[in-house]
Structure formats: structure tokens, C-alpha cells
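Hello, quick one for you while I still have it in my head. A protein chain has come my way and I'm curious about its shape. I'm sending you its amino acid sequence along with the C-alpha cells. I'd be grateful if you could look everything over and explain what you see. Here's the protein in full, and shout if anything looks odd to you:
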Amino acid sequence: MLEDCLEARFEFTGCKIALICEGQILTILRDDKETIPYPNMWDLPGGGREGNETPFECVAREVYEELNIQLSKDDVIWSGIYPSMLDGNKKSVFLVGQLTQEQFESIVFGDEGHSYKLVSLEEFLTSDRVIPQLQERVRDYVEENIDGPVLTTTSLDKDVKRKLENGQYSREEATAIYKDFLRMRERKEEAFFIAKLIVIFMIFFFPFMVAGGNFRRLDDVVLALVFLVLFVVLFIPTYLLVYYHKIGRYKRQLHKAMKKYYVDVLKECKED
């Protein structure tokens, strides 16, 4: 069980965590020093165990030191025990967790490592600059848990997952929550689209407003109207087509991933 792995006190050398944010994984570029293992390669947050730490205590401390992020146990969604990357005769712990966009934007990078960034799971798993052992561990998680597009859960899903595990939600209730979640994401996408449209419109017409002296001359007014018509006739329909195509694809991906997520949790509840 995940909880047992997080809280157990056993002999292990350290703990790494793959933090997934909006389908991307947070990576850290190691320092380019010959005195450290895997110099100038992309790594994951985490590090060596101190004292009698549990796996969660170890990784929470490391993540805070490296990124100034406070992890909670609810952020962790998967665990595994593997041979240590430095000593195959010893054990290390590997975790997968969720990272919100707000947490990513609030990162304060520590003094270990050169830089950090989000990359797609596909890029992480295929790059020759990522530590190979970490690629294998992330691949284990993906093969076990992901069917189709990789989408992470949000704080809403954490609450749903807990209530499903406790038997507080039926499958029908989970489906209703999923629909609410989808509508919420649609509204967010629509709001961003409208905001971008307004900004583009203002940028497009501002030079003409300045050059024309606030449209005091008839020629300036006609010119502005011509550009307005071109903008409406050409740009807006094109943008709308691209936008709704993107939303439609997102709906299909989200539906597939979320459906599997809820069904798997319900199966686990029944098995328990």
C-alpha cells in the first residue's frame, strides 16, 4: 500500500520523486562537476536519506530544500522500491506525485543543480540526457497507470479519490463529479480565449488610433473600418476553428484518462 511505503522505517539509501504538472514532469539539471554522479544530466527532485527518516520525510525535506515546495502525503500517488542507483545491493524509494501550476510558479530554486524545467513525459523517457534509471522508474509508472494521454489529477480529484476509497461515492456520483470538472476546465479555457482575443484586438488597432489622431479624419475612419472587417472576417473564424478543435481534442483526452482513473479506483475499493 502507498501509505505503508511512505511511513515505513526500513533501510533505504534515498528517495526520488517524479512531480507531474499538467501532463509534464519537473526535471532538474545537475551541476556539471566531475566529482558528482551523472554530471550535467537531467535529474528528478529528491536525494539521500538522513538519520531514521521515512521515505516521505526524506523526499519532503529534499523537495523543500531544492525547490521550496511543501509536499503533503496527499500529493503522492504512486510508489516503488528499487535498487539504489549508486549501490545495487541497497534499496531506494521512488515516488510519483502531483504538482499544481501554482506550486510550479512559486518555486524558489536552491543551490543544488543548474536549472529546472517542465518537460513532456515522452521527452523525459526518450532523452539521452536523463539519468537512465529514473527513466526506467517513470516508465514503470506510466505502463502501470496511464492508458492514452498523460493527464494529472487536481486537488478536486484528490478529494474524490479519498471519498471513493472510503466508499462515500458511487460510480454515478464519480461520473457527475467528472462532468463538473470538465465544465470547469472548459470555462477556464474560454475565459483565457476571450482575454487573448481582447488583447490581440487592442494591439491590432492601437497604432491606427494613435496615427489617426483618434480617427478625426475620414480616411482614418475608413482605414480602421477596413481593418476591422478584415479582422472579423479572416482572423476571428480562423482562431475559433483552432480553438474549438483544441477543446474537442482536450475533451476526448480528458474523458479517456479520467474514466480510467475513476474506474481503477472503484476496482481497488471493491478488491479491498
Summary: The longest strand covers residues 14-21. Strands lie at 14-21, 24-29, 42-43, 46-48, 76-83, 91-98, 115-120. Residues 147-156, 265-272 have pLDDT under 50 and may be disordered. Residues 162-271 form one domain.
